[in-house]
Amino acid sequence: MKRALIITYYWPPAGGPGVQRWLKFVKYFREYGVEPIVYVPENPNYPLVDKNLSSEIPSDIEIIKQPINEPYRFAKLLSKKKTKKISSGIISKKEISAMEKLMLYVRGNFFIPDARVGWVKPSVEFLSKYIAENPVDVVITTGPPHSLHLIGMQLQKGLNVKWIADFRDPWTTIHYHKSLRLNNASERKHKELEALVLKSADIITVTSPTTKKEFEMITETPIEVITNGFDISEEINFEMDSNFSISHIGSLLSERNPEILWKILAEICRENPSFKNNLQLKFAGAVSGEVKKSLENFQLIENCNFLGYVSHSEALKLQHQSQVLLLVEINSPETRAIIPGKLFEYMAAKRPIIALGPKESDIEGIIAETKSGKFFGYWDNDELKTEILQLYEQFKTGDLTIASEGIEKYSRRELTKEMASLIFLAAEGNS
After folding, report:
1. Residue 83 has what pLDDT?
2. Which of 15, 14, 13, 53 shows the shortest CA–CA distance to 309?
């Protein structure tokens, strides 16, 4: 067994996609010869909570916790709602208040690379003592928050331990980075830290090919793409929706507002009354007021069912029972590298996927490769309308299915096997 110390901020009872990547790796590591030790904050500020995920933690693994002091706790005194949004990376470019501008400026310029940077020094001190008494083969840090990579870098330097830096999202090219109201000195500091981390790590893992290409322009460190995936380990009991349901799982906020889709659905409703009667739009997760306003403007609001945040198990059931699954990414070059974790669960549900995103999105390649649906740009009006009409005709005849291919390689077990092989590779450098 190789001992791997995993340093992560997000861990059950945290909800949302950020927690699942390393929870699933830890769940299956022992099958591939890796003994995980998990280091997490004792008192984190999680914007989403899903206590059901705690049941997936192996009962006998070692979990180390240390306190963290986060500025978000004090910022809540000013605005709890805005603090929750900013701590989640939910930053709107529209209708931003003076308070939000101030909070973003402080967040971007006083806490580099992020608001968890205060956890770095005490973590390095604690883990240096821990590793001296309990040797490990590899240290793994996962970000965001990218400040955790600074912990790994200092442990590597101080203890000569091998270090894998895992990037669930990009750093300076992530879509909200430009919204942090950075001054020139802060922008330089971000880029300097990013380059230092990328050049110092022994191995880098990323979740998308585009992020790999971006990082390869900065470092010669080996970079491997290990995407997120699906883990359907239990049978899901469900009944297919009787209506022509189109479901979106996850936040649908102002900049992720597919008005092209609402426009097309409204057109079809006007042209085909039976479509209007059969259409049901389901939204599980936060939906912005701007998105709801758009749905009202296109006279679709009566066809909507807003479910709010649901647990992961409820989300899986919703995916399987829906007629069509909707995936929406922001129409921006900065989001080409974003592959939402729900894409893989959508594929496992084996329901037709309609995906909207920017040009050259990594999402498009996976959907095309697996034949799990269709990807459209925000300009593909006619093609998108044709696809929806075809799906509706198949629904009416009871033949709305998808014949996807090769999705097995995106199972969490297969992906854990890949990550374990990198841990062994890194550990061999200690021999």
Report:
1. 43
2. 15
Note the pLDDT tens digit of each residue in 121-173: 999 999 999 999 999 999 999 999 999 999 999 999 999 999 999 999 999 88
| Cβ pair 240, 321 in contact under 8 A | yes
Taking the C-alpha atoms of residue 236 and residue 345, their distance in angstroms, rounded to an integer, is 13
Domains 2-229+412-428 and 244-408 share a fold: yes
Residue 40, SS3 per DSSP: strand
CA-to-CA dists, residue 407 to 31, 229, 344, 413, 429, angstroms: 21, 9, 8, 12, 33
For residue 313, count CB atoms less than 10 angstroms from its CB and return exposed for 0-12, middle for 13-18, buried for 19 or more: middle
146 burial level (CB within 10 Å; 0-12, 13-18, 19+) = buried
Fill in the amino acid letter for 44: P
**What does DSSP assign to residue 54?**
G
Of the candidates 116, 122, 114, the one whose C-alpha atom is nearest the C-alpha of residue 186 is: 114
Are 374 and 355 a contacting pair, CB within 8 Å? Answer: yes
Kindly tell me the sign of the dihedral angle through the C-alpha atoms of 379, 299, 268, 369: positive
What is the tens place of the pLDDT at every residue in 240-281?
999 999 999 998 988 889 999 999 999 999 999 999 999 999
- Options 3.30.1330.60, 3.40.50.2000, 3.40.50.300, 3.20.20.70; CATH for 244-408 is 3.40.50.2000
pLDDT of 51 reads 87
Provide the residue ranges of all domains of the chain, joining segments of one domain with +. Answer: 2-229+412-428, 244-408
Arithmetic mean of pLDDT over the chain: 90
d(Cα 9, Cα 68) in Å, to the nearest integer?
Answer: 10
Both tokens of residue 197? Answer: 């981390």
Residue 31: strand pairing partners: none
CATH topology of domain 2-229+412-428: Rossmann fold (3.40.50)
Residue pair 114/146 in contact (Cβ under 8 Å)? The answer is yes
Residues with Cβ within 8 Å of 398's Cβ and at least 6 positions away in sequence, in order, are none
Tell me the per-residue pLDDT of 198-251, one tens digit each, with 9 for 90 and over.
999 999 999 999 999 999 999 999 999 999 999 977 678 889 999 999 999 998
